[in-house]
Design a protein that fits this description.
Blueprint (H helix, E strand, L loop, with lengths): L1 H15 L1 H38 L4 E6 L3 E2 L2 E2 L8 E2 H10 L3 E16 L2 E10 L2 H5 L4 E4 L4 H5 L4 E4 L1 H8 L8 E4 L2 E9 L14 E5 H9 L3 E2 L1 E6 L5 H15 L10 E5 H44 L1 H9 L4 H37 L8 H27 L3 H6 L2
Parallel strand pairs: 6-11, 8-10
Antiparallel strand pairs: 1-13, 1-14, 2-3, 4-12, 5-6, 5-9, 5-13, 7-10, 8-11, 9-10
């Protein structure tokens, strides 16, 4: 019964000073809103990174040529021609726990259909590339081993290429020109969106590896070898075995540097995930500072309220109000401010996060944990910063309080 009465008194006190109550809440509202919005932005960054790496393929290793010291200069991955199709076959035949292997070559080329043309990336791959990259076909089929064996001029294109060359027309069965030679489009890949680096993964033309090597580029090397491992637990083991195998095949001395580089996408994902988590925590912590400022505002206003109501406190103590009841009354007031401010801040924060996603063209992920944490912290702030004014009110001497003007 006492708690109910104190709750009513606290509510009436807040309502009687609406503007002051709202301005006191504003710090909490801004703090909670900022935490939710900033954490949602950080979570959005993390989701984009994870999705981009996942779209490259699951449990994948990429072997790139290069990363060797030649004349004191380090060559970038892919800049030195050291990998061959036979290297890829050796990995496939001799390394355990490997599901698929697909060597690739790549070039930029003008692709023509009728009066339309488009500059895009043309990549030579094997049929295993389809499984490694987790591709799905929107229409048509992917080329097979026979197309690779006989160097067929067939192509599978991405949606960006299809849109720019064919508009809304189904490209399957149409002939395009790549490097002044005709290629039959046999498939259209379903959209994969942008990569982690912002590259359009749908702006691509895939052709058989041997066709790209012998008919388009006139080369015998491959640019990279994509390897899908059977399980995530075997990634490090398979990577070490590939490095050992390639060093043997390339006759690299024990004290010499590798002429290739193996990239572990699982390790990359873990590293990027840890980095984005730290960014999210940093953004949330910075936003959380405004909650501390809001708490200081609550304490300041509650101290003013205690001073204004000194005679009221004196009267209540004179007629029997205890230390605990006086303290509880002011704690309830500060807590109500933080609770109401927290609820409003949650609504505004969710709305702001959605607005950033809709109008800013940026992915945001609203986290239930961030909502609960920000609201819980706002509640703690209300209690913590309301404690000092409440104790001050409860410790007032009733005689001195009654004399106060």
């Amino acid at each position: 019964m006492l708690f109910t009465e104190l709750l009513k008194m606290a509510g009436l006190s807040l309502i009687s000073n609406k503007l002051r109550t709202f301005l006191t809440m504003l710090g909490i509202i801004i703090g909670v809103c900022s935490v939710i919005a900033m954490v949602s932005v950080g979570q959005g960054v993390k989701k984009n990174v994870v999705d981009s790496i996942s779209r490259l393929g699951s449990n994948m290793l990429i072997v790139m040529s290069g990363s060797s010291n030649r004349g004191g200069i380090r060559g970038g991955a892919g800049s030195v021609q050291t990998l061959t199709y036979n290297d890829a076959e050796a990995i496939k035949d001799k390394i355990k726990y490997v599901n698929y292997v697909s060597p690739t070559v790549q070039t930029n080329s003008q692709v023509v259909y009728g009066h339309e043309n488009w500059s895009t990336t043309v990549t030579g791959v094997t049929p295993e590339y389809f499984s490694i990259q987790s591709l799905t076909m929107q229409s048509g089929i992917f080329f097979n081993g026979h197309d690779v064996d006989v160097r067929n001029r067939v192509a599978v294109i991405g949606t960006t290429v299809a849109t720019n060359l064919f508009g809304t027309v189904n490209p399957v069965g149409k002939k395009i020109r790549v490097g002044n030679a005709p290629y039959t489009v046999i498939g259209l890949i379903a959209s994969k969106g942008q990569s982690m680096g912002g590259q359009d993964q749908d702006d691509v033309v895939l052709i058989p590896l041997t066709t790209a090597q012998e008919r388009l580029l006139g080369v015998t090397y491959v640019r990279s070898i994509n390897v899908q491992v059977a399980s995530e637990e075997r990634m490090d083991e398979v990577q070490a075995n590939i490095e050992k195998l390639l060093r043997q095949r390339h006759r690299i001395r024990e004290d010499a540097e590798d002429d290739f580089n193996v990239r572990n996408l699982t390790s990359l994902m873990e590293t990027m995930s840890e980095t984005t988590t730290m960014i999210t925590l940093l953004l949330g912590s910075i936003a959380g500072i405004s909650l501390i400022v809001g708490g200081i505002g609550i304490m300041n206003i509650m101290m003013v309220s205690v001073t204004e109501r000194t005679r009221e406190i004196g009267i209540r103590k004179a007629i029997g109000a205890t230390f605990n009841s006086i303290m509880l009354q002011f704690l309830i007031e500060s807590t109500m401010i933080s609770i109401l401010g927290g609820i409003i801040g949650i609504v505004v924060g969710i709305g702001l996060a959605q607005a950033i996603s809709k109008f800013g063209g940026f992915t945001t992920v609203i986290s239930g944990l961030s909502i609960a944490a920000s609201f819980g912290f706002s509640l703690f702030v209300g209690v913590f910063f309301g404690m000092l004014p409440a104790r001050k009110a409860a410790k007032l001497d009733p005689i001195d309080a009654l004399r106060y003007e």
